[in-house]
Amino acid sequence: MIASRSYAVPRWAGLRSMRGPLFGVLAVCVFFTTLTLLDRPPDALLAQGAGMYRAEGDLRWTGSQAEFALAPHTGPTRLTLVLGFSSWPGRPATQVRLESDAGGLGVFTITAQRQHIQMLLPPGATFLRLHAALGRPPGDWRWLGVQVLSIDAAPSGLPTRAIKLALLCAAASVVLAWGFAWAISRGYGTLAALTLLGLALRLIGIAGSPPMIHRDEAVSLVDAWQLANTGYDHLGNFMPIAAFEAYGDWISPMLTYLLLPWMALFGPQPLVARIVVATFGALAIPAVYGLVRELRLPGAPIVAALVATLSPWQIFLSRVAIPPALVATTWSLCLWAAMRFVRLGRRRDAFGLAVAAGLTLYAYPTMKLAVPLLVLLAAGLAAAHHGWRALARWAWPALVLGLLWAPFVSNTLFNPSSGARFQLVSLKAESASQWLALWWQNYVVYFLPRLYYSTGGIRKIVQAVPQRGLALGAEALLLLGLGVLPIRLAARRWRTPAWLGSTGAPWPVWLLLVLAIVLAPLPASVTSGNPHVFRAAALAPLYAVLVGLGAAVEWQLLAYLPQLARAAMRTLAAVALGAALLWQFGAWYDDLLNAYPAKADSTWFFADSELEAMRRVVAYAPGYDQIWIDARSVGRPYIFLLASAALPPEQVRAQLVVERNPPEINSVTRLGSYHFYDFASLALPAALPTIEALPTSNGLPGYVIQAWHIDGRRVLILRGMPTEVAGSVPAAPPEDEDAPTLQD
Asked: Which DSSP state fits 15?
C-alpha cells in the first residue's frame, strides 16, 4: 500500500496564471495616477522659484537671477507675470530681462507701479528665467533685484515630461510588483514592503532636506569623477585603495568607489550621489532583519526591520552622501556574518565574515577600530563554541581577510598622514586618570535615554534634526521587554514557566550581541565632541535590534493571559503602539522636510547654493584675468569649483596648488586662474560693482559675485554675502567644522 501525501498549495499559486493581466492593469493604473498627479495646474510657481529672498509678507524680492520651473507641454504656455519695485533714493526703477528655452523674451523697466507682463512661451518650455539689475537699499544687507508679486502659467497640449515620468513609473511598478510577488512566495512579503517604504522615506524630498550640498559630499563625488576619468583622485594619488586624501584628513574609500560608476555615467551630480547612498542605506532594513533572525526569537526580526525603516537616525544619515551613511548597512551585514560564523562555524561562514569585515573596515574611520575588535570577539567565541581544532578550517578565510586588510595596514604603517584626522579629534588630557574620566563621560552618553527620546545631546545641526531625539519615544515601551530576556534565554536550563519558552540561538551568539553593543560607541568615545551621531552610527542598527527583541518578548509574555484577554491585549497593544509610532514619526518627518532646511540653510553648514555660485563664476571666468574667492566666508571653495567642472579632469592635478601641513587640513591656494584668499587680510574696496547676488534656497544670505579692476587686471570676486547690518544673520564661523554648534 502506497501512502499518499497532501501538500498545501500557496494561495498565491492560483494567481500565477493571472500575473500578466494583473501586472498590465497595475501599470495602466500607475500610469494614469502618476499622470494625474504630475499634470496639475502649477499654482505654486512663486513659492518654488529659485533665487529669491525670504518673503516679507506677500513680497518676494529676487537676487540677480530668479528661475521658475515649468512643466513642458506639446503646445504653447501662456504665462502671466506681475512684477513690482519699491524704489529708494537714487534708484527709482530697475531693469529686468526675461528668457526661456527659446531664448530672450525682452527687457522691461520696472517702476514702483505694478507691471503685468503676458507672454506666450513656445512648446516644450521648461523654465522662465528672470535677470534683474541689482541695487542695495540703505540699511539693508541684501542686494535686491525686483519684486515678483505673482506668476501664473497656463500650458496647452500634452504634458511631455509628465507622460515620460508616468511611463517610467508604470514600468517600475511592474518590476516592483514582480519582485514583490517573488518575495511573498518565499515568505518575505512584509520585509519587502518595509524595505520599499524605507527607501521611499529616504528619497522623498532628498534634494532639499538636508540642503545640498555638504562639503564632504562634494569631495567624495569629485574624487569619484576624477577617478573615473583619470585613474587619480583630485590631489594626484593614483587609485587609492586604503583611503582618499580628501582635504588632508584621509577619509575611508568605500563611498567614493560606490559612487564611481554613477559619476562616470552622470558626472559630479550631487542628487545622483544622494540617491545612490539612500538606496544603500535602505539595505540596512533587510540586513537588520537577517541579523535578528540569527537570534531565533519569533517576531523580533520584523519588528527590528520596522524600527530600522522608521529610524530618524538611519533616515537622516541615509539622505546625505557622506561616509557615515554607509555604517548602518555595512555594520549590520558584518554583525550578521559574525553571528552566523559563531553559530555554525563552517568554512563558508568564515568566508562570509572575512568578506563582510574586509569591506566594512573601509566604510568609515570608526570602523577601523570596531571591525577588528568584532572579528577578534567572533573568532574567540566561535573557537570556544566549536572547539579550537576548528581554527584549521578557518585558515583560508583568515588569509582572504588579511589580503582585504593589507592596503589598510600598509597605509597605516607607511603613510604618516593617514591618522591626521584622528590626531586632531582624539581625546586629550593631562593625566591618565583625567583621560579615563573624560572617556567614561563620553562613553556613557550613548546609553542615556535623553539622546534617543528628548532634545538633549545633539550638538551639530548637520548631524540631526535639532530639538528631536534620534529615536521615537514609543519605542522605549518596547525596550522594557529586555528586562525579561535573560530569564527567557535561560529557559532551556532552568525550570521556568512554559510561557517564557526558549530560543534556538546558542549562548555565544547572544554574548557576541552584548559585546557588540558595548563595542559600538567605543570609537566615538575616544574622540572629542560627544555625542557625535556620525562616529557612533554603529549604534543605530543595534538599537533597532534591541527594540525588536524587547517587542518579541513582550508579545510572548501576553500569551500567559487567558485566550480572550490575550487576543484583546495584543490587538490593543499593537494598535496603540502603531498609532504612537506613526504620530511621532510623522511629526519628526514633517520637521525634517519642512522646518529643518531653513535651520540648516547656511553657507557654512550644507553650503547651500555654493555649487550654483561656482557654476556662475565659471561662466564669467573667461572675461577676467583672475578670479579671487574668499576662503573664509566660502567653505572649501576649491572642491565646489571642481564639482562645477571648472577645469577638465585631466588638468586638475597640474593646476591645483596645495599646501600640506599634517595633521592640519590641506590649504589650497590656487586652481589655475582661481585664487583663494582670506579676504579679512585684504584691503578690498567697501563698494564694488555687484554682478550676481545668490540667496540660499530658503532666502537666507548666500553669495555675491563682484568685479574689481586693479593695476590693469580684471578680477572677478566671489564671497559670502556680507550681513554686517545690525539685526541680520551672523557671519560664518571659523574654518573648523567641529566648532559650529546648534547655537551658532
From this structure: G
pLDDT at 503: 61
Per-residue confidence (pLDDT) for residue 25, from 0 to 100: 81
Instruction: Quote the CA–CA distance of 242 and 407 in Å, as a whole number.
Output: 5
The helix/strand/coil state of 130 is strand
Residues of the chain with pLDDT under 70: 1-20, 40-43, 58, 456-459, 488-503, 602-604, 724-744
Q: Residue 2: what pLDDT?
A: 39
Write down the pLDDT at residue 491. 59
How far apart CA 744 and CA 739 sit, in angstroms, is: 9
Q: Could you give the count of Cα atoms lying within 13 Å of 204 in the half-sphere of its Cβ? A: 12
Alpha-carbon gap, residue 227 to 26, rounded angstroms: 42
| DSSP letter, residue 128 | E
Convert 481-495 to b/e letters by CB count within 10 Å (16 or more is b): bbeebeebbebeeee
Longest pairwise C-alpha distance within the chain? 109
Q: Which residue has the cell 578557518?
A: 394
Q: Are strands 703-710 and 690-694 parallel, antiparallel or unpaired?
A: antiparallel
C-alpha 425/C-alpha 489 separation (Å) is 41
Q: Are strands 127-132 and 62-69 parallel, antiparallel or unpaired?
A: antiparallel
The pLDDT value given to residue 736: 43
Q: How far apart are CA 505 and CA 502, in angstroms?
A: 9
Residue 485 CA neighbour count, 13 Å, CB half: 24
Contact, 617 vs 675, CB < 8 A? no
| Residues 195 and 287: beta-carbon distance below 8 Å | no
Which 8-state DSSP code applies to residue 244?
Answer: B
CB 67 within 8 A of CB 151: no
Burial class (CB in 10 A: 0-12, 13-18, 19+), 645: middle
CA distance 290 to 307: 14
- Whether the CB-CB separation of 679 and 732 falls below 8 Å is answered with no
CA angle, residues 607, 458, 737, in degrees to nearest 5: 35
Nearest residue to 293 (alpha-carbon basis) of 336, 338, 347, 357: 336
Cell numbers at 173, concatenated:
511598478
Tens digit of each residue's pLDDT (9 = 90 or more) over 717-728: 999 888 764 333
